[in-house]
Amino acid sequence: MKIFYQIAIIIFVCATLYIVKDDVITVYNHAISYISPKANNIATNTNNSNLNVKSEEVSSAFKSVNTPGALQIKDGLALDANSVKLTSKDVIDWTNKNRLINGNLPPLKESSKLDFSAQIKLNDMFKQQYFEHISPNHIGVSDLGDRVSYEYIIIGENLALGNFKDAQSLLNAWMASPGHRANILNKHYQDIGVAVGHGMYKGQDVWMAVQHFGLPRSACPSIDDVLHGTIEIDQNQIQTMQADLALRRNNIDSGVVYEGMTTNEQIAQYNDLVIKYNQLVSVIKEKTAIYNNQVNAFNLCLQSNTQ
């Protein structure tokens, strides 16, 4: 029995040494992996030097505002205001007749938004007792266009004060004034809004008329604002990825254990991330090219309509 126990002990010791040996070899191999020199297959092409994303904005300088001096016909004040026959529709009709006669220009389309902005202007002039393009509150036609959500490339305003007997007389007076005539015959305008009405102005019962002209932004090629937003999101992601790749590369170069991975495992993950990085760079460049082409087309349209 004693011999049997001695044999059992010898077998146990040998088995233990074998297991320990195997564990030592495993630990050694892992240690060598952590401290081994940098592998040669690490990716380096992150294309960050070629990343040149230019997200252009539409310049507001292309917007144009045309406001000739306010037209006041003093001789017309002698006419009884109640005898005047003046409507917004007639003013628009006679405006388009003058455009047809003088250069065969296309008729202007009535815009409910510009009708609204013109009415705001008319009411404000009677309320605050002024007759100017800029109100005492420093509000002009461009501000009114923004207020009624009329997105424009060009906007203009004609004002008139006087008891004109009808729309034809009013248009004759405007056409006799170079600045007002230029607004009426502007080939770039597409929309018009008109407001007319009479009330007390500095102690006299008088008529006032407001014309608002506009070339809407929709007249030029559209720009995809959503696309611009996705480019910005992608650019932020690129910056995050760049920082992450720089950290991982530094850890690989210094042989630091990172996230429990061996050096070779770190390299493999780094290379996978580089592939994703380069793919995103390509996507951004494609999106940016599309967006910038849209901006360039829009700006060319703006230039052609403001010269």
Could you explain the architecture of this structure?
Strands 1, 2, 3, 4, 5 and 6 form a six-stranded mixed sheet that branches. The protein has helices at 2-35, 88-101, 112-128, 141-147, 167-175, 178-184, 225-254, 263-305; strands spanning 64-66, 71-72, 109-110, 152-161, 191-201, 204-216. The protein has 307 residues and is an alpha/beta fold. It is 52% helix and 13% strand. The radius of gyration is 39 Å and the shape is elongated. Residues 4-41 and 44-61 have low confidence and may be disordered.
The topology string of helices and strands comes to HEEHEHHEHHEEHH
Unreliably modeled segments: 4-41, 44-61
Largest sheet: 6 strands, mixed
Number-wise, the strands total 6
- Mean pLDDT, to the nearest integer, reads 80
Overall SS class: alpha/beta
- What is the terminal-to-terminal distance? 115 Å
Gyration radius from CA atoms, angstroms: 39 Å
Q: What portion of residues is helical?
A: 40-55%
Number of helices: 8
Q: What portion of the residues fall into strands of 2 or more residues?
A: 5-15%
Shape: elongated
Secondary-structure topology with pairs:
Blueprint lengths: L1 H34 L28 E3 L4 E2 L15 H14 L7 E2 L1 H17 L12 H7 L4 E10 L5 H9 L2 H7 L6 E11 L2 E13 L8 H30 L8 H43 L2
Parallel strand pairs: 1-4, 2-4, 3-5
Antiparallel strand pairs: 4-6, 5-6
Helix pairs in contact: 2-5, 3-4, 7-8
